[in-house]
Amino acid sequence: MIALTLREFHQFEAAGRRFLYLVPSAAVFELEEPGQAILDLLDDATVSEDDVVNGLSARFPVTVIRETIADLLNARAIGYEHVRDDPGPKQLPMVPFPLNTIVLNVTNQCNLACTYCYEYGEDKIVDTEHGQQSKFMSETTAREAVDLLLRESGRVAHMTFFGGETLLNFPVLKSTIAYARERAAQVGKMIDFSLTTNATLLRPDIIDFLAANEIGVTISMDGPKDLQDKFRVFHNGTGSYEVVAPKIKELLRKHRTRPIGARVTLTSETIDVTRIYRHLTEEFGFAEVGFAPVTTSPQQQYAIGNTGFDRMLGQFRELGLEFLEHAVENKHHGFSNVKDTLEEIHKGVSKAYPCGAGLGLLGVSTDGDVAVCHRFAGSDQHKLGTVKTGIDRAAQAEFLEQHHIAEKTDCHTCWARPLCSGGCYHEAHVRYGTTRRPNLHYCEWIRGWTDTCLQIYGELAVRNPEFIARFDRDEARAEAVL
Amino acid sequence: MTHLKPINRKAQRVVAEVGSGVSRTIGDADKDVVALQQLPAPPHFPLGCSLAFSPGWEADSTGGTAGLCQPVERDIFDCHLGCFWPAHVPDQLNHAPDWTGTCATAQKDWRKLDLVFPG
């Protein structure tokens, strides 16, 4: 008897139809009724091909059953029991991998004292108050970072300014952009800029500069006054909402050259996704709002626990369905968490690494140390070179070797690993003391959210395929530039 | 592929790959070869140097473990989960519940199994 058995996949239902998300290929197929019946049969028991045919011949023509079995075998949704399911080789990225984005921590100082901040609270990695690192990045270091980026990048390079509070070092930011434009023109590459700010220091002249230079802006903000002022406070404890609100409104009115997004940190005490989204899009007019749970060790009161993740998932689902209804009618909806995931699902991304950190993205500390990402900037343990000496390729190779999904044993039985790949390195470092561990505390949440996004994707594939086709067109346009 | 509808781009690539004949539909010819191998496969025995696998037999011809063709850790799950050899592995019920936490697939990950020190 040659027995058939199920391979790895996740089934989901959308628009009244059944779909398969295959793991690890990340291919999405729609199932017809015979396919569904075969999978149901194999779910109960391991049976031979002939038994499958006999069992279902009353319901479907024999040729259809056999063809469907062949299709499922080819897609690797099922396999022969005696043939081992080959996990495939551990493929490391080609080296040297082009550098796509560099994040400059232009200062590690901040005029706010958000109580949940990973940079200053109990979970901090680098002692920015009493440590060795400079408090502000010098113009020379920033220029060296520009040179590093343009040396290691492909045709297009991205530079992001970060902090601390980025705008505390506006002079360096301004001169670095001018220098980077000039250097990029000399070497024939394209460069674009973005920054993240808490909005407290936005002045009319800064806003004009950002608009004129087409600088992408992300505002860190938690929503309506009661939520914003709970954690996002000044050093004396007063809330920042009244200070930032008029400045953000002015920015959104005057800066029209790039869509401006808000980045919300969710804590156990501020899980109110829909209200935050409404406030930020309707009251302020943000083009996009992205949410992320606070990065913290579990003992902090504001850490999101299991029930919090459930609540958050429920609210994400609600807003996700709203996104879907907008997308069906080709209307814009700014819930960016969905859009990013839909794009990855559409491409069939199957990640060996959770993000581009240490690969296409690097962080730079105020002193010019190159790190895995901006969240590790200044940490000796996570150093991958300096802007002066360049990327330490040996350290980078070791990092990539150690953090590959093949090394994350816990993930090997999870169907969501093509998209999650273990989750944020920094989150893992704070939770478990090592970047190498997968983030097991939010697996259920990741699977729940991935399932929701797959459902939204399936619905769109049936109800408005045009919306999905847009991802292809956007990419073709981006590639035309390359 | 006629009964699976590709939806995303990766699925279309799978279909193209199958259509190009790079990975063939498994047909009768393949099954013949399989049949000649007298399948179904025998029950799984852990790969060691002893066919009749039983605790206590896992020693080389000198009575030690140095000459085994596979490291003793290779059999770990066959021994302490499916069999009756509990004394030789850490007590996973009480003292070392996470001992095999990094070892989902013994064939691949047995090197990650570490010693457990008391205290």
Please describe the structure with a list of short key phrases separated by commas or semicolons:
heterodimer; A: 482 residues; alpha/beta; Outer Surface Protein A, domain 3; TIM Barrel; 10-stranded mixed β-sheet; 3-stranded antiparallel β-sheet; 16 helices; 16 strands; 42% helix; 16% strand; globular; B: 119 residues; mainly alpha; 4 helices; elongated
Give a description of the structure:
The complex is a heterodimer of chains A (482) and B (119). By secondary structure, chain A is α/β, with parallel strands linked by helices. Chain A is 42% helix and 16% strand. Chain A contains 16 helices and 16 strands. In chain A, α2 (49-56) packs across α3 and α11 crosses α15. Chain B is an all-alpha fold and 119 residues long. Helices cover 24% and strands 3% of the residues of chain B. Chain B contains four helices and one strand, in the order βαααα. Chain B has helices at 9-19, 28-36, 76-80, 106-109; one strand at 4-6. Chain B is elongated, with a radius of gyration of 22 Å. The model of chain B is unreliable at 45-57 (pLDDT under 50). The chains are: A alpha/beta (482), B mainly alpha (119). Chain A binds chain B through residues 1-3, 19-20, 25-32, 34-35, 64, 67-68, 70-75, 80-82, 345-348, 350, 409-410, 412-413, 457-458, 461, 472, and chain B through 1-11, 13-14, 18, 23, 25-26, 31, 34-35, 39-41, 101-105, 109, 112.
